[in-house]
Amino acid sequence: MRDNGRVTSATAQPETPGSPQFSTSLERGDSPLTPPRLIATDLDGTLLRDDKSVSPRTVAALAAAEKAGIEVFFVTGRPARWMDVVSDHVHGHGLAICGNGAAVVDLHGGPGAHRFVKVRELARQNALDAVRLLRDAAPGTVYAVEQTYGFHQEPAYPKLHMEIPDVRAQAEDLLAPDGAAAAEPVLKILAHHPELDPDAFLTLARLAIGTCANVTRSSPSALLEISGPDVSKASTLALCCAERGISHEEVVAFGDMPNDIEMLTWAGRSYAMGNAHPDVLAAASGHTVANNEDGVAVVIEQMLAQRP
Predict the structure, then answer these.
(1) pLDDT by residue (tens digit) across 126-145?
(2) What share of the chain is helix, strand, coil (3-state, %, to 5)?
(3) Which of 30, 58, 172, 272 is most buried, with most CB under 10 Å away?
(4) What is the pTM of this model?
(5) How far is 225 from 198, CA to CA, in rounded Å?
(6) Could you tell me which residues are beta bridge partners of residue 190?
């Protein structure tokens, strides 16, 4: 869940450096194994430029893909209320996968009027167990609770998000049966540590929490995102594709951070951005240029140019 200029984490983001011109199978002239039927793309650090804009070139590429009969799904760690940045580009189906797979949202209603089509919540007992286990493993961790519409945080949780929390209280109190989070499904828990290295914090949390929740990260800071045990971008995308009769071989995916890795390895073809985390570069089947250089549009243009 990245910085939201208008939208995700208010953590300061470095400008994405220029990237080398990575070679992809399309650039080498290799024949695609399966014609794509769906494009799944992350937003922050991937489709969006660092200023959180969608470039005119990218807008044109997305429209051209939809015109060619290729569905485009935005698959992001952002909550639904932060999707206004792309709500004009959802085309016919109007759907986006939000919260790292915790929700499928119909954006047709516009900002503040979205409809939850599918919710894959984090059970409160799992959330409480994850909070307890990580508190023991990494003292100093502080938490926020992301729900379908609400957002709550502990008093010590830093101002990482461009919004005011509905309630400030300890996570255990927020998640109690009669707590502030009782009225709506919990989509994910956010865990922040003020000192740990982000990758080290992720490794530690995964070992500590085990199978009671899925832990990932998309921020450059030590901010983790904790979802239900089987909830990820990949698993929810797979459900959406199955409903459409689309196989994973017919999916092309784009991403830049650890929360994209499962999706990139599931898709038939995948592209890491030139600005991607090293683990993402290793996981993807192809590379493209950085988000500030319209790397998603570059690949889409090449795919469409090779269609019969």
Answers:
(1) 999 999 999 999 999 999 99
(2) 35, 20, 45
(3) 272
(4) 0.89
(5) 12
(6) 144, 225
List b or e across 75-90, with b for residues whose CB sees 16 or more CB atoms inside 10 angstroms.
bbbbbbbbbebbbebb
Best CA proximity match to 141, nearest among 86, 218, 196: 196
Q: In terms of DSSP bridges, do strands 269-272 and 38-41 run parallel, antiparallel, or are they unpaired?
A: unpaired
Helix axis angle, 124-137 to 198-209, nearest 10°: 120
Other residues' Cβ atoms within 10 Å of the Cβ of residue 133: 17
What number of CA atoms fall less than 13 Å from residue 107's CA on the CB side? 26
- In 3-state terms, what secondary structure has residue 224? strand
| pLDDT tens digits for range 239-268 | 999 999 999 999 999 999 999 999 999 999
Amino acid at 46: T
Task: Kindly state the helix (H) or strand (E) to which residue 270 belongs, with its residue range.
Answer: strand 269-272
Chain position carrying tokens 């007992």: 125
Q: How far apart are CA 35 and CA 109, in angstroms?
A: 32
| Spatial separation of the C-alpha atoms in residues 281 and 79, rounded to whole Å | 25
The sheet with strand 269-272 has its strands ordered as 115-119, 103-106, 95-98, 71-75, 38-41, 251-255, 269-272, 286-287
